Amino acid sequence: MINVLVYIVDALRADHLGCHGYGRETSPNIDRLAAESETVRFSRAFAPSTWTKPIAASILSGCYPPAHGVRTRSDLFLKAVPRLPELLQAAGYQTAAVSTIGNVSSSLGFAIGFDHFNDLYKDPSLVARREVSNTGAWKLYFEQDTTVVLPLAEDVNEHAFTWLDGATGQEKPWFLFLWALDPHDPYYPPSGFDRWSDPGYGGRIDGSAESVRQVRNQADVQRLLDLYDGEIAYTDTQFGLLLQRLRELEVFDDTLIVVAGDHGEAFGEHGDFVHGHLAYDEVMHVPLLIKMPRGKKRVPADVRKSCGALVQLTDIAPTILDVLGMAEEASEMQGKSLLPVLEGVSESDRAVYAETQSSIANNRLLAVRTERWKYLKVAPPAALDGEQHGSQTTGWQRRMQGYWQHLTNPEMVKKLVRNPMFYMRRQMADREMLFDLKADPGEQHNVIGGFPEVADGMRGLLADWLEQCHAYARISDQQAAGLGLDDETRRQLEGLGYLQ
Fold first, then answer.
1. Tens digits of per-residue pLDDT, 56-107?
2. Which of left, alpha, beta for 106 (phi over 0: left; psi -120 to 50: alpha)?
3. Residue 102: its pLDDT value, please?
4. Residue 90 neighbours by CB under 8 Å, 6+ apart
5. Given Cys at both, which of 315, 367, 397, 398 links 279, Cβ 3.0 to 4.6 Å?
6. Are the beta carbons of 258 and 175 closer than 8 angstroms?
7. What is the signed CA dihedral for 315, 321, 325, 326, rounded to 10 degrees?
8. With 0-12 CB in 10 A as exposed, 13-18 as middle and 19+ as buried, what is 452?
9. Does residue 356 sit in helix, strand or coil?
10. Across residues 468-486, what is the average pLDDT?
11. Are 280 and 53 in contact, with CB atoms under 8 Å apart?
């Protein structure tokens, strides 16, 4: 009997973990899991978007954002796409989830297929026990003032332990899906975990979301990185306690464990901070570890240390189903099982993709990455129904519709007046970018004009992918009616900047 645990750490960069070569000891528990004889670490795993909600839907459905329809701040996860929890539930699994963020909540449709879904950020006891962040001064992505309860990874454990105690020992196997909010900004490492900060730092950066806009020099950036690493170390400690509980319950060996970041986090590498923007590797490259259950597949030592295949978070669901002997149930997913990669099947021609469009007023940010090349495209807003609209006029009409919605909000008008260049810059980025990752792994030099044939090939890959997604969306475009945001979810998403 194989149990399944999926543990997602929000905003976790791959290159800030010890098992990915980071110099600080931020992740000893994740590193030990990576060293297990049955664990494979994928060194080149990538997110299909650069913010949480579309990525969460991709993890659970094995489909890309243009296919599953969760693309903007207002989208609900309701399309008739395959869902991992539903498939496991139908196979006799006990299913449960604990989420710390409104972007992965029952109100948005993420509870479908789960016997129990705990929207942890709504827990009234957390208001007294946990940090309540006033993010009203954050000018990066949000439009309204509010307060936000920030659940911690230990709160996830508290609820997960209770559920595991009841589920373990039952005749049915279980699937547990956990979403830890740390180290998402604001960067507030709990007591004892602000380990790397310079005691001589005298700047204004305190980890709050609003202080990100006050970064002026490298010392300020380093202060953010120090706080961010502290949050990773805290989350890793709590993850270690979760693994310990699995061992105490004597189910660790028989559990398929998946650990991943949903997206990375930027610290000025390309002029931006946090996430939700262009899919440079600091935001697109994420950790992905898969520990096989006992006796299912022994991972070769050279693969276990580091599997360099290009993979995406869309591959998680089909891989889990394949391990469980349910590969047929994954046939309608766009992601691929990673078991053939572990068996030596080469996919050297594979590409990975990303799409980000937070609202109909925002540009559509597209990416395709191959072994050597990364192609980024900034396009006008696309339709939200899965259909392509090729005319520039249509894109600008949709953009103006979104702007008008923003301008009806007096707070948004104030922000535009105070900082017009910030919003203008986000609309005036290069239309196309091409990076030679072999010569320029930091993606600093746009060589779109120097390699026209490569650029044409990448455009073709992107066009083929979008058409596949659109065809998929047309087939599965079945929306459920009457499911809207509850007050708690709306307030949290407003505070974190995802709703106006």
1. 999 999 999 999 999 988 888 988 899 999 999 999 999 999 999 989 999 8
2. alpha
3. 86
4. none
5. 367
6. no
7. -110
8. exposed
9. strand
10. 65
11. no
Token digits for 500? 């106006």
- Per-residue H/E/C for 433-494: EEEECCCCCCCCCCCCCCCHHHHHHHHHHHHHHHHHHHHHHHHHCCCCCCCCCCHHHHHHHH
Greater model confidence, 186 or 235:
235
Residues 113, 110: Cα–Cα separation, whole Å: 8
- Of the CA atoms within 13 Å of residue 155, those in its CB half-sphere come to 26
* Helix/strand/coil for 39: strand
Q: Select from 10, 171, 140, 141 the least CA-distant residue to 73.
A: 141
Question: How many angstroms separate the CA atoms of 118 and 10, rounded?
Answer: 17
Alpha helix segments (H runs only) across 62-102:
65-68, 84-90
| DSSP state letter for 265 | -
Question: Which amino acid appears at position 48 of this protein?
Answer: P
Residue the block writes with tokens 């706080």: 227
Q: How many CB atoms lie within 10 A of CB 80?
A: 13
Cβ-Cβ contacts under 8 Å for 185 (sequence gap 6 or more): 11, 207, 209, 212, 265, 274
Place of tokens 């080149």: 44
pLDDT of 143 reads 27
Exposure string for 169-205, b = 16+ CB within 10 A, e = fewer: eeeebbbbbbbbbbbbbbbbbbeebbebbeeeeeeeb
